[in-house]
Amino acid sequence: MRPTVAAPESVTWAVHLDRAMWVAGVRALMLQALHPVAMQGVWQRSDFRVDPTGRLLRTAHFVAVTTYGSPEEADRLGAHIRRVHAALAFTDPATGRRHRVDERDLLVWVHCAEVASYLETAVRAGVPLTPAECDRYLDEQSATAAYVGLSRDDVPRSVADMRRYLAAVRPALRATPEARRAVRFLLWPAVPEHLSALAPLRPLWFPVGALSYAVLPAWARREYGVLPEVPGQEAAATAALRLLRAGLEAVPERYYNLVFDEATVRSAEQARERLLAAGYRVENGFRALRSRTRFRAPDDAGAAARA
User: What is the mean pLDDT of the chain?
Assistant: First the structure.
């Protein structure tokens, strides 16, 4: 049995353990909200309006477990998600049609908006990925589709396929009033109870939220119109993203982990123990392992990290 769902040599680890993922995660939520039907599902059947931070942290937990959790842990989480989704339905007020949360098209959109945001933000932030590695990331991530009830062939498995999918779905995307309110929540979210000690630092979140908005595609920002466009915005956003990434990478792990849920931190600690037992050198944490390991094809996985 593999010690973790994704191997430390995978492109998935390089992307998901990078601290630019905070921006990528918020960008993904903002992009997802542009699907009017999917947005209604979130608006009507989740606690997003009262706890947008909680939804972000739950997404972070899903990413963590399906990256460095054990296969059994990921299977349990996936089964839980599928049970919850199967029990939820909502009504689209524009058409009066009743929808299930776990409809295939909605699940595909959520998956694609997430992994495209993760990959595009990582590359823009300076994670060194070749075109082949970008393709490999999407192929690796197609395996996570099973946890929400999809198959690997339901979702794009290369950059070209992802571009075709996003172009095809683009005419259906628009900023509804609910989507604009969701973006405003994400720009200035409430501090959850378990992070109340960090409430004085809340103003530091706005630059993260604003940067997440700034790295959305230009058409998405035009749809929202929540923040003003400025000359040279694309270049400035890229520079700011790289600066933020450098700052977050400098934060010691023991402080950085304070923002995560206890379950996410526990999953990381268990993964570290499994990797140590498997011969990986993770005494100094995942980041040290990531920095020493270049992505390898599955047949070569493990050789460099254990050497």
Answer: 88
Residue type, 83: R
Each domain of the chain, given as residue ranges in start order, spans: 11-194+201-300
DSSP 100: E
d(CA 300, CA 135): 18
Question: CA of 87: how far to CAs of 16, 45, 99, 102, 140, in Å?
Answer: 30, 10, 11, 9, 28
3-state DSSP assignment of residue 90: strand
Nearest by Cα to 110 from 136, 147, 77: 147
Measured CA to CA, the distance from residue 60 to residue 191 in angstroms comes to 16
Rounded CA separation 214/238 (Å): 9
Please answer whether residues 65 and 147 qualify as being in contact, where contact means their C-beta atoms are separated by less than 8 angstroms: no
- Summarize pLDDT for 49-94 with one digit per residue, the tens: 767 777 788 899 999 999 999 999 999 999 999 999 999 999 999 9
